[in-house]
Design brief:
heterodimer; A: about 800 residues; 5 domains; 4-stranded antiparallel sheet; about 50% helix; flat; B: about 325 residues; alpha+beta; Methane Monooxygenase Hydroxylase, Chain G, domain 1; globular
């Protein structure tokens, strides 16, 4: 069967687009061929910077003939109907139609249409131009004289030529002939731009690949990658070095060359005083070169780098290596300058005293200066969420409150919080934003900060995803939690929640981060309470900064923010301190009056539900059963209302209390301190760690025989109850032992009483395994009860009493989980 | 094309030799060799020979050197690679010939860059000028890892679709000269190709000016005057465009004052750059200034299409 070779040769295609474009080409063409009634055995795409190619094997030579009949009107139908039929069937006269007879309908016209199969060449010639014209490049352009007219061909860069040949292996392939905007398909291509400038005539894929190879073009990108990687490792090894591998860079570089030649360059050792990550990123981002390190010398880099040229230079690459070395040196000079500058004094120190005082900074230290400047310059965090300085203030307050909960030293947490974002003002992070945190840690250590404080500068951003490391140092934990909770509550308050696949502020990641930090560090904390506090700080700030902005120049504020600020002002005079405070009462409400009131009560439960969703994802990914999570959450939401109620203190009389008196909460209400459940009245569902432990314990219980039978028994009890409740059968309020007739009843009653008490006590002690164990002993008496006792006794009092006993089983198990949610 | 040139005029020895070689190469191809525009601009693209002539259907092939000013890039003469005043070599070909890449590579060979000795690469770079309302696709051209030129197929200029598309080549002359002369500091470039007492370096010509202009750009430029100048240039640009607008009674609806109006647009753009260097423009204001210049450029471009040079057919 014939094979198809297609090559679209153009000027240099951006490296990042090549792989996808080649894949799109394969999919579009093979889909089109199949749709046109052809089949193929295999298809594979290839690409270089200057071409996309497609090799389709075993294509059918023509599509099948198709016959169809189109029924027409009766032979006695009026002329109008006959004409309509002719148009529809594409016939020129009624003589071309056949007459069929039907015993009921009589004679009527039928058109016999036969569509002969088409030659594959014709199908290809029709398909390819359409694909080229509608190709989904992320960005495309027009060019040349043709672009004078509207609707001219667009491609990623000027398209130069098209090779399209078709034919079986045993015969000379033919050129599939077509033309697009003056480019005519053919069998001629070109090799390497400099090594082989002449034209090459090709027949089919096999000689195409070998002729290109002879013309210094390696067609297969994966082979180019293998060559680069192997040669780079070898050249490094031969010089006593190890290549620092980088898949992203390898992919990019393989898209920049048709004929990879690996060379080594070097720079002065003096530059090695720059942190390795900075060197690596400098060389990677600007020069697309790899770095190396001495063999078995840890993380330190060597002063040699590896570059990939596109030619076999006459001088063996000496000039190329020298030239690249020069550019690398210039770039590293900049990096070294940044690194040194960041360790020196800022020129505008005299203006930073105010900010320094606000955060208790020591302006003799470089990182302190940067933090002061971050605040002084009013760098925006988000138009509606204030400046970075304000954000650091909030994080500091919240981290301070979390410190005792996570067992961290308060002074260290305070210091870590004010330095955590300071590196955003450093030159290195300005150049390489991905180094935020890592640089903060380095600079903090250089100025003699406590190791925990320095670590927190980096670790408070963690975990960055499901597989990233979770911070364990209590100082990092406190700042990381505060940072993430501030982000979440802030964006929740301004209604920038994730929707569908859109999560521009990475809020899902932040919530997962909070969950992982709490669970993996065994931290008990009330999410709602901490979030509420974060929200209150944000509200206070928003109100005050909003009022200040309204007094200033509104020209500098975008329309949406302006609307937001005015809606704040319209509902209370900014000069009226009492109203001002009222809107940021203990509940952290934003807008005090009117329909737009959006207090924490309202969106707080929404945020908690978001946490639960993320928790489900987290638990499911760690192997927990979906129904068990629902069972635990369902049970947890029932006894106590989930979010509001006992936990949030009521505003004091008149509500006009300055925020300062709110910010210091009574010690027993510190977020998350919950020595025993009930003492601060928090919902069990608000404590993520507790949910996780319950799910784990429930899972273990259901793995046992006793657990499985207990589940079955409980469900049976619940089903009977539900059925009888539906029938409005009387269920006694309490169980009356005097009405027991059978031993099994008495035994079950005693067991339920015992288990309920034991389980309750265990839950109070937060020993969920013990609670489950206490419940599991119910299995035997429940089984005997169902075996030996008929619930529906004729005596109504006895029946009502037995139903009450069943209700007790349900109540006992409800303490740990809603068994009705469990599957099986 | 091979022209025997004396050693002191060779690009590897002489900055001016580099310019003359490029002039020769592009003149031989068929370009008009124009002179720099006599106003302060941020890049060769601002020259009306590019901005305006890239619009409309008429053929246009030109090459010229354009002194370019970027007030913010001043380093008081202390940085070996950064200048607030430097030269761009600009080539504009409309419509772009199909072999523009080959032509460009030919120009590199002409100044002594051998493509089998040096690694020349076309690396993705999408060009955009927010102030000119212009964008195009193309590459940074690398020579042994160093960006020596920009290569752009203009898609839009002054907010107007280019029809046909023009190809633009911009050579960073100092950088290219440093490369072919093998010099690490721009001020060490040999300007005239002579040696000994006759030798004049780039530093001899420009170092003092760099120091003085850095002071001016960052410390002394009169900002209240500049703010006024910006307003004036903006108003004048609009007034001239209004005054030149074709009247309903005209036989041919031809605009009569595009070039003078465009000068005011250039002026506003440079004044904005100076104000930016003086640090008196906040981040949010910055956007609105850029938008104001862009609106002027758009209006000029639209007016240009109503002129003979813009392709308006004679009556």
């Amino acid at each position: 069967m014939p094979d198809l070779l297609l090559e679209l040769r153009s000027e240099e295609i951006p490296a990042r687009m090549q792989r996808k474009a080649a894949g799109d080409l394969r999919k579009m063409l093979t889909d089109g061929l199949v749709e046109a009634g052809l089949t193929y055995e295999a298809a594979r795409e290839y690409w270089t910077p200057r071409r996309l190619a497609l090799d389709i094997r075993g294509l059918t030579a023509r599509s099948k003939d198709i016959r169809e009949e189109i029924k027409g009107p009766s032979t006695t139908a009026p002329e109008q109907a006959v004409q309509g039929f002719l148009r529809k069937a594409g016939l020129s006269s009624i003589a071309e139609a056949h007459v069929h007879s039907d015993p009921k309908k009589g004679d009527f016209y039928v058109a016999h249409i036969s569509k002969p199969g088409r030659a594959a060449e014709d199908i290809i010639a029709e398909l390819v131009p359409g694909i080229i014209k509608s190709f989904p490049w992320p960005k495309s352009m027009r060019w040349g004289p043709a672009s004078a007219k509207p609707g001219s061909l667009r491609w990623v860069r000027p398209l130069q030529s098209i090779v399209c040949t078709f034919g079986p292996e045993t015969e000379e392939p033919v050129v599939v002939d077509f033309e697009i905007d003056g480019i005519r398909s053919g069998n001629v291509t070109f090799g390497h731009r400099f090594h082989a400038p002449g034209a090459i005539t090709v027949r089919r894929f096999d000689d195409y690949v070998s002729k290109l190879e002879a013309a210094r073009v390696v067609l297969d990108a994966d082979r180019r990658k293998e060559i680069i990687l192997a040669d780079a490792r070898n050249i490094a090894f031969a010089n006593g070095l190890d290549l620092v591998e980088d898949e992203g860079l390898l992919e990019e570089v393989s898209g920049l060359v048709e004929w990879p030649v690996v060379l080594m360059g070097e720079f002065e050792r003096d530059f090695l005083t720059i942190p390795g990550e900075v060197i690596r990123l400098t060389i990677r981002a600007n020069q697309k070169c790899f770095v190396t390190r001495p063999q078995s010398a840890g993380e330190d880099l060597s002063n040699r780098f590896i570059l990939i040229a596109n030619i076999e230079a006459k001088d063996g690459g000496r000039e190329i290596a020298r030239g690249n070395g020069k550019v690398v040196r210039a770039r590293l000079s900049d990096a070294l300058y940044f690194w040194k500058t960041d360790q020196g004094d800022l020129p505008d120190l005299d203006q930073l005293a105010g900010s320094a005082e606000k955060f208790g900074l020591d302006l003799k230290k470089p990182l302190d200066q940067r933090m002061a400047r971050l605040d002084h310059l009013n760098v925006t965090f988000h138009a509606k969420l204030g400046t970075q300085g304000q954000r650091v203030e909030r994080i500091k307050r919240l981290a301070g409150e979390l410190a005792p909960v996570v067992g961290a030293d308060s002074a260290l947490v305070a210091r870590a919080a004010v330095l955590a974002k300071a590196d955003l003002q450093t030159e290195v992070v300005g150049e390489f934003p991905e180094l935020q945190g890592a640089m903060g840690r380095k600079y903090a250590l250089l100025q003699g900060e406590d190791a925990s404080v320095a670590a927190a500068a980096e670790e408070h951003y963690k975990p960055q995803g499901p597989s990233d490391r979770v911070p364990t140092d209590p100082v990092s934990v406190a700042v990381a939690l505060a940072d993430k909770l501030d982000t979440l509550t802030g964006f929740w308050a301004i209604d920038e929640k994730p929707t569908g696949s859109k999560d521009p502020f990475a809020l899902r990641r932040a919530a997962l981060g909070v969950i992982r930090i709490l669970v993996e560090n065994n931290v008990r904390a009330s999410i709602a309470q901490a979030a509420q506090r974060a929200n209150r700080y944000a509200s206070e700030q928003l109100f005050h900064s909003g009022a200040a902005m309204l007094e200033g120049d509104m020209d500098t504020v975008d329309g949406e923010t302006e609307y937001f600020l005015y809606s704040l002002r319209d509902q209370h005079s900014p000069n009226d301190e009492e109203t001002a405070i009222q809107i940021i009462d203990e509940d952290g409400c934003f807008l005090p009056n009117g329909s737009e009131r959006r207090g924490f009560r309202e969106y707080g439960s929404d945020l908690l539900a978001f946490f639960h969703d993320r928790l489900k994802v987290y638990l499911r990914e760690s192997g927990a059963r979906h129904d068990l999570i629902d069972a635990v959450l369902s049970a947890g939401s029932r006894p106590i209302s989930p979010l509001v109620g006992e936990m949030s203190a009521k505003p004091t009389e008149g509500g006009a209390v300055p925020p300062a008196s709110h910010s210091v909460a009574p010690p027993s209400a510190l977020p998350g301190i919950s020595p025993t459940r009930g003492e601060i009245g928090q919902s069990p569902n608000d404590d993520l760690l507790q949910i996780v432990r319950r799910v784990e314990a429930l899972g273990s219980l259901l793995d046992t025989e006793d657990g499985k039978n207990l589940l079955a028994g409980t469900k049976r009890a619940a089903n009977i109850l539900a059925a009888e409740e539906k029938k409005k059968t009387l269920v006694a309020e309490t169980v009356e032992p005097a009405l027991f007739r059978e031993d099994a009843e008495k035994m079950l009653y005693a067991a339920v009483n015992h288990a309920e008490k034991e389980a309750g006590q265990a839950i109070k002690n937060e020993d969920f395994s013990a609670a489950m164990l206490a419940l599991s002993v119910l299995r035997e008496p429940v089984d005997s009860f169902f075996e030996g006792v008929l619930v529906n006794d004729e005596d109504q009092a006895v029946r009502a009493n037995r139903l009450a006993l069943l209700a007790r089983i349900r109540a006992a198990t409800d303490q740990v989980a809603d068994f009705s949610k469990i599957v099986g | 094309m091979t022209i025997e040139i004396p050693a002191h005029m060779h690009p590897s020895r002489s900055f001016q030799g580099l310019i003359l070689t490029l002039h020769n190469y592009w003149a031989d191809y068929g370009c008009l060799i124009l002179q720099p525009y006599d106003m302060e601009v941020g890049a060769g693209t601002f020259h009306p020979a590019t901005t305006l002539r890239a619009l409309g259907p008429l053929r246009w092939n030109a090459a010229y050197v354009q002194p370019s000013r970027r007030p913010k890039d001043g380093r008081y003469g202390e940085n070996p690679n950064r200048l607030q005043h430097y030269y761009q070599y600009q080539v504009i070909l409309k419509p772009n010939p199909p072999n523009l890449q080959e032509l460009y590579l030919g120009s590199l060979e002409a100044i002594g860059v051998d493509p089998l000795l040096h690694d020349i690469r076309f690396v993705e770079d999408d060009w955009e000028s927010p102030t000119l309302g212009a964008w195009g696709l193309g590459w940074e051209c690398w020579c042994d890892g160093m960006e020596v030129s920009q290569f752009t197929y203009f898609q839009q200029v002054c907010g107007i679709e280019c029809a046909p598309v023009a190809g633009e080549l911009t050579y960073g002359l100092e950088r290219l000269a440093m490369y072919v002369q093998g010099v690490d500091n721009v001020y060490d470039l040999n300007f005239n190709g002579r040696e000994g007492a006759e030798k004049v370096t780039y530093g001899d010509v420009f170092l003092q000016a760099e120091q003085e202009y850095s002071r001016h750009n960052f410390e002394f430029a009169n900002t209240s005057m500049l703010l006024r100048h910006f307003e004036d240039a903006e108003a004048e640009c609009k007034a001239l465009l209004d005054a030149g607008t074709p009247k309903p009674s005209d036989n041919l609806a031809m605009h009569r004052m595009v070039f003078p109006a465009y000068d005011q647009c250039i002026k506003a753009s440079h004044v904005f750059n100076l104000l930016d260097a003086r640090g008196v423009i906040s981040v949010t204001e910055r956007q609105s200034y850029i938008l104001r210049v862009r609106n002027l450029a758009k209006a000029c471009g639209e007016a240009f299409l109503k002129t003979r040079a813009g392709g308006l057919a004679a009556a």
